[in-house]
Design brief:
This is Pseudouridine synthase RsuA/RluA-like domain-containing protein. The chain is α+β, with helices and mostly antiparallel strands. 38% of the residues lie in helices and 17% in strands. The longest helix has 26 residues. It is globular.
């Protein structure tokens, strides 16, 4: 945890020097201070406003790294300063050639996050990124994803700029994947299989629901964890990761699937995992079988083109009409040091789409809602935090305000549907509810006989 008294002293001294017009702070020093406070998750609006005033006076002297780093710092801490963003945009446009791919991505992401969708800047970022993708030596996959994530965050404003960049990134990723998969001939085998999978026995142990030439869809039972990832990808940093909290799914993948692909053994490639599910969440999870699958699926996640839908049971009666939860979410440390997400200033954009709702009355007349939601972003505990903050926490989720019941002893959350296309045709997987969740619904009444066979037909209303 940051030393708050020390940071307050440094902040006060820095603001005093800036206020007196001291020239102690060169552009690099201003950038470094903003970056340090952002990296430490310290929200200090007065300091950030002081830095902004000093930075705008020297913006023409900022290096490319300073421009992108300053933009990233202000967006990360959700500090609004339109004049500073306008100054950074004007200073960046003629100098984008000097930006790294990471710098281009950080800049696009920062402007999108703060709602400053400057189309000329976004298109210029895409135009500068494409030649860098074709450079020699080629950039690492993580560098390739940075501008894609940045432009994707801009939504419709970045769509025009994203298309050409995504095509160039895909070409590079395919070339790198061929080189890496070529070291392991077994990675190129092509199984006969359909483009979709549905259902399957809700086993207490993992199994392969769907096997494609480059991807698996695995069944993840409750009590299994995915504790891999580099911490930079939201989809690989959005779940419970407490050591010892469950059986590691990556160990199962290495033991059961290691003979089919090098990716299963590669910790640097997250053992093939493209996203996470919370320990108690059951359902479908995507795992790469080859580097081709890993790189191109990672690109689809970065571009927000993967469809992920969940079924959950929450307290109260949700409004039945489809709508969006869009409150920004901030990761904080709760009692005992565990991480959780909360609504608050400084949170990152998050979007959860409510598809359908069905109302139940539980034992003792408790009002409950069975609902299907789609994730448009991948923040930690996003569904749990959004519904909990709206007054509808998930059943058996005390961390976010839900009650435990004798008929449901784990968080009622199930990954029901996955869809994506990495260029070989659509992959669509649907996962039946785990048996313990079906039994929980059966407690709610005989009407569940009507719902049970169709719960995975999303986004249609099962009723």
């Amino acid at each position: 945890m940051p030393d708050e008294p020390l940071l307050e002293s440094i902040s006060a001294a820095a603001m005093a020097k800036i206020a007196h017009g001291a020239s102690d702070f060169q552009p690099e020093g201003l950038t470094n201070m903003a970056w340090a406070w952002a990296a430490l998750s310290v929200r200090d609006p007065p300091l950030f406003q002081s830095i902004a005033s000093a930075a705008m006076a020297k913006i023409s002297d900022f290096a490319a790294q300073g421009l992108s780093g300053t933009a990233w710092s202000y967006a990360t801490r959700s500090v609004s300063n339109p004049p500073l963003l306008a100054a950074i945009s004007s200073a960046s446009l003629p100098r984008l050639l000097s930006f790294t791919l990471q710098g281009l991505g950080n800049t696009a992401w920062a402007f999108a996050t703060r709602g400053y969708s400057h189309a000329p800047l976004l298109e210029a970022i895409s135009s500068e990124a494409i030649p860098k993708l074709r450079s020699s030596p080629p950039p690492a996959p993580a560098e390739v994803l940075a501008p894609v994530r940045g432009l994707s965050a801009a939504g419709a404003a970045g769509a025009r700029a994203l298309g050409p960049l995504l095509e160039a990134a895909g070409t590079l990723m395919e070339r790198q994947a061929r080189r890496m998969d070529g070291r392991f001939p077994g990675a190129q085998q092509h199984d006969r299989c359909d483009g979709s999978a549905s259902g399957g026995p809700a086993s207490a142990t993992p199994y392969v629901m769907l096997r494609r030439p480059h991807l698996y869809v695995l069944w993840k039972p409750p009590g299994w964890t995915v504790t891999v990832g580099n911490g930079e990808d939201d989809d690989l940093a959005s779940a419970d990761t407490t050591p010892g909290s469950g059986s590691p799914l990556q160990d199962w993948v290495m033991g059961q699937l290691g003979s089919e692909s090098l990716v299963a053994e590669d910790a640097g490639a997250a053992h093939g995992f493209l996203h996470r599910l919370d320990c108690q969440t059951s359902g479908a999870i995507l795992c790469a079988r080859t580097y081709h699958g890993y790189f191109l699926a990672s690109l689809q996640f970065a571009a927000r083109r993967v469809r992920k839908e969940y079924v959950c049971l929450c307290h109260g009666w949700l409004c039945a009409s489809p709508h969006l939860f869009e409150a920004p979410l901030l990761v904080v440390h709760a009692a005992g040091g565990a991480k959780c997400s909360t609504l608050g200033v400084g949170g990152r954009p998050a979007r959860t789409e409510l598809h359908w709702v069905r109302h139940f009355r539980g034992p003792c007349g408790t009002r409950l809602s069975l609902t299907a939601v789609r994730l448009h972003t991948g923040r930690m505990h996003q569904i749990r935090a959004h519904l909990g903050s709206a007054g509808h926490p998930l059943v058996a989720d005390p961390k976010y305000g839900g009650r435990l019941f004798p008929w449901c002893r784990r968080v009622f959350l199930h990954a029901a549907r996955l869809e994506l296309d990495i260029g070989a045709g659509p992959l669509a997987a649907r996962s039946d509810l785990a048996e313990d969740l079906v039994q929980a619904l059966e407690v709610l009444g005989a009407s569940c006989e009507r719902a049970r066979p169709s719960l995975v037909v999303l986004p249609c209303d099962p009723g």
